[in-house]
Design brief:
Elements (H helix, E strand, L loop, with lengths): L1 H8 L2 H4 L1 H9 L1 H8 L3 H8 L2 H17 L5 H16 L9 H11 L9
Helix pairs in contact: 5-8, 6-7
Length: 114
């Protein structure tokens, strides 16, 4: 909260006047986010790849408009995902550290091989 107050008093509040109000309205959710370790927070706030995929799929589906069957829509989505993911080289470099933190925080959700 002290950092948010400092942000509000500094030059950034002039440039981004809605940020402080938005954060104060959802402060209970913001605090919950900061309760996670930095490794987990990094993976959570870097969901841009997911949002990018969703935006590109929406654009492709909106442009196409009508599908003669569900199978036609499924094929278009599959082809779009194939093209979208063609340039992906590897997973996020921070994912392994985040998974270790998830395993510590939520050990009951991780299963061991029999």
């Amino acid at each position: 909260m002290a950092e948010l107050d400092a942000f509000e008093q500094g030059p950034w509040d002039v440039k981004f006047p809605t940020v402080v109000g938005a954060w104060r309205r959802v402060w209970d959710k913001v605090i919950a986010f900061f309760a996670f370790p930095p490794e987990v927070r990094r993976v959570i706030y870097t969901t841009n790849a997911i949002e990018s995929v969703n935006a590109r799929l929406r654009k492709i589906l909106k442009t196409r408009g009508h599908f003669p069957s569900d199978d036609a829509a499924t094929k278009l989505i599959w082809l779009a995902l194939r093209n979208i993911t063609a340039n992906w080289a590897r997973a996020s470099p921070h994912w392994k550290a985040a998974m270790n933190q998830f395993a510590i925080l939520y050990k009951e959700r991780f299963t061991q091989a029999a």
